[in-house]
TrEMBL record:
GO biological process: canonical Wnt signaling pathway; cell-matrix adhesion
Lineage top rank: taxon: Eukaryota
Organism field: Ursus americanus (American black bear)
Nidogen G2 beta-barrel domain segment(s): 537-767
Name of the protein in its database record: Nidogen 2
UniProt feature, compositional bias: Pro residues: 1019-1029
Signal peptide: 1-26
Bridged cysteine pairs (disulfide): 985-992
Gene3D superfamilies referenced in this protein's UniProt entry, alphabetically: Green fluorescent protein, Laminin, Thyroglobulin type-1, TolB, C-terminal domain
Location (main, coarse): secreted
Gene: NID2
């Protein structure tokens, strides 16, 4: 650029970017794209591993270089362009997946039992497209400045939970996640927006299902995968965002778009796109930034490694090495740090905080990425909420915020902060009347006479308000007025301990007073009664820090970085660590020891008759500071909001820092001398004003600077009890040791202070101070020091610990029985304490100790209040609470609220030679006269053959008897082929005999009543009929499917070709078995199966009372596929352990190995009895193939060995004469003629098929991903139905049972 040429104005998307970057708050749940069934969303079926039906897109979208017209949404936080494999094949594995994947939060998610819902839709509304366009343009200002999407696809996971093993002892986790993915596309490009609202991610990973008792949790995967791109062997490109738990946490804390929780990516284009391209406006996101835990920051080893020169930097004594610190995890991922945006302006000289507004053009409301409903709203010109609170400039939002001031306060001059009113160079008076340096604390009069509280006009704690959401901020004059009564009570509505004692801490007692009740901590505890901590015990603090700072002239932003503090209560030491503040800001914040000094004041060592801050505030308060630096008069405001104690008794706190701080060059160290602060106490507020000097040193350079700090702490005090007379209104905090350090390698800012609270005194300390008061005692850090005469003292372990005071260990109240947990509750031991949790189905009563039963919510599906169609037409599906949905039953169509019968006869489902009869919800088929079959397959009746001797004799006798014989008259019995049945009897009598093939009586076989002759050699007549097995259910008459599912064989009837899922049942339970191959003998109605667990082949009759019979029990390793030849009465099987194919008679005799060479993994096998052919598959991964031979093992040859992967299932259809197979590698269902010609693809989007069978014009295959039976139409290739058994486990073999033996002619 030529020197002197003016910079052009940025394009409009950059203005939008500046607006997005100006907001500090994380994404609010209300700021997600609008969703819900009222918006047209479809609801994914609840469950552990569900996937949607294919969603046909109105306009195809681009993903990488390819174009797709269908999308699938899965329970497990994932979107794909194809149906998903079984979850165990991808949920617990790292990227990449072998199928296309868009993963906003890939983990083992379970929405069963109403734990959340998954919603999805395609949207073309202008509101949604406009919002998506603004986000994309902001994230890609150069390449997508004119991006105008025509379609958007939205998927929302709302309040979904992680999969958990069912347990009656442990209630389901309350950690639920909400997140959203939006795919916006035009004719050439597709962008993905991933949104994670504040508190939307409460769990960050899930346990593998096969981890058993191993406590292993895998972090969720977030990213994009192209999948395998050609022959299932070459890995496609992929893009991964997360690898550790910390990187998952950063999803809602950071952004590559400038709005914490919002991420944008360019994922597809007609132009070359080698891989996913992320937006990068949020700063450099490619470097790893470890986040050391607190123990690494202040542990004994860490302290020793730093070679400090100060004599008093021994943070912990030898006992403190055993302390458990808040957990932390170093993060090595590219995004393993909190949201950071450091902007350096090299050309234009920026103005300090509060300077003139930016010269950039101002944004209108229509430029903001808000909901369309909010875009029409305008800001009131007198009360615009857009401006950052406290006078911090926000581009494009000029507002007016009133600064507060109290009489007698040496602070900013009263003014309306607007525009540049905070700029010290534009006429604002100096902070002190004489314009000189601020006086010292001792030399200045009390800043707040009469002990009045001052509430400075700081920003609301935690975050700048989101755009479009108003928030009111009040100065002290708005709240307190001229008195100190911040909180008021109405005696007419008196609250008593009887009804409200549950508001007190479990370590407090409740006392009623004239106007209400108050809580008071028990002996050996301290606090405000609502929050009580054990005296002498160490304490911990966890929190988040956010900031919008100007360091010198450089703006720096950070969001929700971690803060941890550890306090040794019995000697007043407080250590604070803040991670991942950008280096310029962290270096400049080194002098601000009050950030960590708050914890020193809260838990300061107390001199006799004096109390530290926690005794007043408890765990809920607001600490506000305004700091003015000299000589530059930079001003910064800090708000720290305490939000109570967590279940581990850790104090939770949020910190927000806004303003300008002086720049401190790198490598300079900061030293702050010990100091004293005077605190003024009123009923609900504490104030302090002080000055502080600090020095900057680097080698021989030594500079001294100073700042003035105003502090204001407000809390809720109990007004009903009289004020404690022993506590003065003024106390002095002595900070005897101060330390501040920042290490760029660890990106860690540390503060450490030692504090005492006591009376206001001079510089000279009293002689002979007791060790309990100066912290020089030798009590355990979990013990309280009790002063004696002179310098004597004793040590007593804090409540919850036991020992001699010099050494203290935790007391397990749960094991000792000293807890107060009531019935139906569980006691959980904590360090120094315990907590109570209610058992599943119970919740706490008001006393927080008693557990009462939870009243189950109403179920509209059970109480009949739903609006579904009648039970015979529809079913009601309960989704938790009062929500439900309706679905028409098979055979009906409609919304579920209105269902109409489907006329299947109009769909030509019967055979052309059959008549169709429609019935409500079903139909039936009947072959025409002259044809036989089930109506779906009809074959002509065989031509009339000559009558046999048996048939002619039978006809003659019947004619002689007049057509109907008496019960005692003999009629010859003939079989279907006209042969004499070996056993003949006189009518219905017990007089029977055996005959030969010509009908002549066999001598000596005529029986007496009560016995039946044994007409078949070696078969003894049964004396007692066996009773039906209790685990065998006789099948119904008609066509049905039999499928193998581990230890059982299932029965699934067919109505035509439709699955009668409501009539499915278990046919046979086989405990201890793993049934794989299964087939049926239509002549004897026997089912045969292989068992890889028992290494056997067995069979059982379908007649009632039949017992399973093992027919092959030796010489097997892993018998899998099985095929029955009902013509030749033989069976064939594969053994993948022995790499063999064998044959035997149906009773197991005449066993013969047909093939034992050139086999690697033989699996499926099929037989064509009519033509005498045998077929089998070998899924050898190096050379998969399908082979054939004669039934005697002759003429072996390869039919198919190209373009196949894992041919698991194989079937021969005797009617269509097609050999078909299901391939789990290519995901295809294909067919060919018996000679290998005429190959065609029926379906190319299978999941993970195992076994397959054909019937009529349909295929039915078992699927390992769906754990069910899937039906596919042979002609159209469409999926028509699926059956998922209630007990979810792998399904193996499947076969069809006909009411007759198919001829295949």
């Amino acid at each position: 650029r030529a020197r002197g040429l003016p910079l052009p104005l940025p394009p409009p998307p950059l203005l939008l970017l500046l607006l997005l970057l100006s907001r500090a708050g994380a994404l609010h749940p209300d700021e997600l794209f609008p969703y819900g069934q009222s918006r047209g969303d479809q609801l994914l079926q609840e469950g552990d591993d569900e996937s949607s039906a294919p969603v046909k897109l109105a306009s195809p979208l681009r993903f990488y270089e390819a174009q797709f017209s269908y999308l699938y949404v899965g329970t497990n936080g994932i979107i794909s362009t194809q149906d998903f494999p079984r979850e165990t094949q991808y949920v617990d594995d790292d990227f990449p997946t072998d199928f296309p994947a868009i993963a906003p939060f890939l983990a083992d998610i379970d929405t069963s039992q109403g734990r959340g819902q998954v919603l999805y839709r395609e949207d073309t509304s202008l509101a949604v497209l406009g919002l998506a366009a603004r986000y994309v343009r902001a994230g890609f200002p150069r390449t997508a400045a004119r991006f105008t999407p025509t379609h958007a696809f939205l998927a929302t996971w709302e309040q979904v939970g992680a999969y958990e093993e069912a347990s009656s002892r442990v209630p389901p986790s309350e950690e639920l996640n909400t997140f959203q993915a939006v795919l916006a596309s035009d004719e050439s490009d597709t962008y993905a927006l991933l949104l994670y609202p504040a508190n939307g991610l409460q769990f960050f990973g899930t346990r593998p299902k096969e981890s058993y008792n191993v406590q292993l949790e895998l972090p969720a995967r977030v990213g994009f995968c192209r999948g395998e791109v050609d022959d299932s062997k070459r890995e496609g490109p992929y893009f991964s965002l997360t690898s550790t738990e910390q990187s998952v946490k950063n999803l809602y804390q950071q952004s590559n778009l400038g709005v914490p929780g919002v991420w944008a990516f360019h994922i597809g284009s007609t132009s070359p796109l080698d891989n996913i391209r992320p937006a990068t406006v949020g700063g450099d996101l490619t470097k790893a930034h470890p986040s050391p835990p607190l123990e690494q920051s202040f542990g004994p080893t860490a302290a020793a490694e730093r070679d400090y020169t100060e004599d008093n930097l021994d943070y912990y004594d030898e006992n403190e090495g055993e302390v458990e610190y808040p957990p932390g995890e170093p993060e090595d991922a590219w995004n393993g740090h909190s949201s950071i945006d450091v902007s350096f302006q090299s050309k234009a000289e920026p103005r300090p905080l509060g300077g003139p507004a930016s010269p950039l053009p101002q944004l209108t409301a229509s430029d903001r990425p808000l909901y369309p409903e909010a875009e029409s709203a305008t800001l009131d010109p007198q009360t615009k909420e857009g401006r950052a609170l406290g006078g911090v400039d926000t581009p494009g939002l000029n507002g007016r915020v009133k600064a507060s001031r109290q009489q007698g306060t040496r602070g900013p001059a009263p003014s309306e902060i607007e525009g540049d009113s905070l700029d010290p160079t534009r006429g604002a008076p100096p902070p002190y009347a004489d314009g000189g340096a601020p006086p010292s604390e001792e030399g200045a009069p009390s800043a707040h006479p009469e002990g009045k509280a001052v509430l400075l006009n700081y920003p609301v704690p935690a975050h700048t308000p989101p755009l479009g959401r108003g928030r009111q901020v009040l100065g002290v004059e708005d709240v307190i007025g001229s008195s100190t009564e911040v909180f008021t009570y109405n005696a007419a509505n008196k609250e008593t301990c009887e009804h409200h004692h549950g508001q007190c801490s479990q370590h407090a007692f409740c006392t009623d007073y004239a106007t209400g009740f108050c809580c008071h901590c028990q002996s050996r505890f301290y606090g405000n009664g609502k929050h009580c901590l054990p005296e002498g015990a160490p304490h911990r603090v966890n929190g988040k820090v956010s900031g919008h700072l100007r360091v010198g002239h450089t703006p720096v932003h950070f969001t929700n970085v971690d803060l941890h503090a550890y306090i040794v209560g019995n000697d007043g030491r407080a250590y604070t660590a803040i991670s991942h503040i950008p280096q310029p800001a962290a270096q400049a914040l080194l002098p601000l020891t009050p950030i960590g000094g708050l914890f020193g004041w809260l838990f300061a060592l107390q001199k006799p008759g004096w109390e530290n801050g926690f005794s007043f505030t408890g765990a809920t308060f607001t600490h506000e500071m305004e700091v003015t630096f000299y000589p530059g008069e930079e001003r910064v405001r800090i708000t720290q909001t305490a939000e109570g104690l967590d279940p581990e008794n850790y104090l939770s706190i949020k910190t927000n820092i806004q303003g300008q701080v002086p720049y401190i060059p790198a490598n300079f160290t900061v030293h702050v001398a010990p100091y004293k602060e005077i605190y003024h106490y009123s009923d609900s507020a504490v104030t302090s004003t002080s000055s502080r000097d600090y020095s900057l040193t680097l080698g021989t350079i030594n500079q001294t600077r100073s700042y003035r700090v105003y502090q204001n702490i407000t809390y809720e005090a109990c007004r009903h009890s009289p004020r404690h007379p022993a506590v003065p209104t003024t106390q002095q905090l002595n900070v005897d040791w101060v330390f501040a350090l920042y290490t760029d390698e660890e990106r860690l800012l540390r503060f450490a202070v030692t504090n005492q609270v006591g009376p206001v005194e001079g510089d000279s300390d009293p002689i002979g101070v007791n060790p309990c008061y100066d912290g020089s005692h030798t009590c355990d850090m979990r013990a309280q020091c009790h002063p004696g005469a002179g310098v004597d003292y004793t040590c007593e372990c804090a409540s919850g610990y036991q020992g001699d005071g010099r050494g203290c260990v935790d007391v397990n109240e749960c094991a000792a029985g000293s807890h107060r947990c009531g019935p139906n509750s569980v006691c959980i031991n904590l360090l120094g304490s315990y907590r109570c949790e209610c058992r599943s189905g119970y919740e706490f009563a008001d006393d927080r100790h008693t557990c009462v039963a939870i009243t189950p919510p109403p179920n509209p599906c059970e109480d009949g209040s739903h609006s579904c169609a009648p039970a015979g037409q529809a079913r009601c599906i309960h989704h938790g609470g009062s929500t439900f949905s309706c679905a028409c039953l098979p055979g009906y169509t409609g919304t579920g609220h209105q269902c109409a019968d489907v006329d299947e006869c109009s769909e030509n489902r019967c055979h052309p030679s059959a008549t169709c009869y429609n019935t409500p919800g079903s139909f039936s088929c009947q072959c025409h006269p002259g044809y036989r079959g089930d109506g779906f397959q009809c074959t002509p009746e065989p031509t009339q053959r000559p009558r046999t001797v048996c048939e002619r004799w039978r006809e003659n006798l019947l004619e002689h008897y007049g057509g109907t014989p008496r019960d005692d008259q003999y009629v010859p019995q003939c079989d279907d082929l006209g042969h004499f049945i070996p056993l003949q009897c006189h009518g219905k009598s017990d007089f029977c005999w055996c005959v030969d093939k010509d009908g002549r009586e066999v001598q000596g076989t005529r029986s007496q009543p009560g016995t039946t002759p044994a007409c078949i050699p070696t078969v003894a007549p049964p004396t007692v009929r066996p009773v039906p097995r209790p685990d065998v259910t006789p099948p119904s008459v008609g066509t049905f499917l039999l499928y193998a599912q581990g230890q059982q064989i299932g029965h699934l009837p067919l109505n035509g070709t439709r699955l009668q899922k409501d009539m499915a049942k278990t046919l046979l339970s086989l405990h201890g078995s793993i049934v794989v191959g299964i087939d049926y003998d239509c002549r004897e109605r026997m089912v045969y199966w292989t068992d890889v667990a028992g290494r056997t082949i067995s069979r059982a009759s379908l007649e009632p009372g039949a017992e399973p019979e093992t027919i092959v029990n030796s010489g097997l390793i892993s018998p899998e596929g099985l095929a029955i030849d009902h013509f030749r009465r033989t069976m064939y099987w594969t053994d993948s352990g022995l790499d063999k194919i064998e044959r035997a008679r149906l009773d197991g005799s005449e066993r013969k190995a047909l093939f034992h060479t050139d086999l690697v993994n033989p699996r499926a096998i099929a037989v064509d009895p009519i033509r005498g052919n045998l077929y089998w598959t070998d899924w050898n991964r190096e050379a998969p193939k399908i082979e054939t031979s004669s039934l005697e093992g002759e003429n072996r040859r390869i039919l198919v060995n190209k373009d196949i992967g894992l041919p698991n299932g194989l079937t021969f259809d005797p009617f269509s004469k097609l050999l078909c197979w299901a391939d789990a590698g290519t995901k295809k269902l294909e067919c060919t003629l018996p000679d290998g010609t005429g190959r065609r693809v029926i379906q190319n989007h299978l999941n993970y098929p195992f076994s397959i069978v054909s019937y009529a014009d349909h295929f039915y295959h078992t699927d390992w991903r769906r754990d069910g039976v899937i039906s596919v139409n042979r002609d159209s290739g469409q999926f028509t139905d699926e059956y998922l058994p209630e007990q979810r486990s792998h399904l193996y073999g499947i076969t069809a049972v006909y009411p007759y033996c198919p001829t295949g002619k």
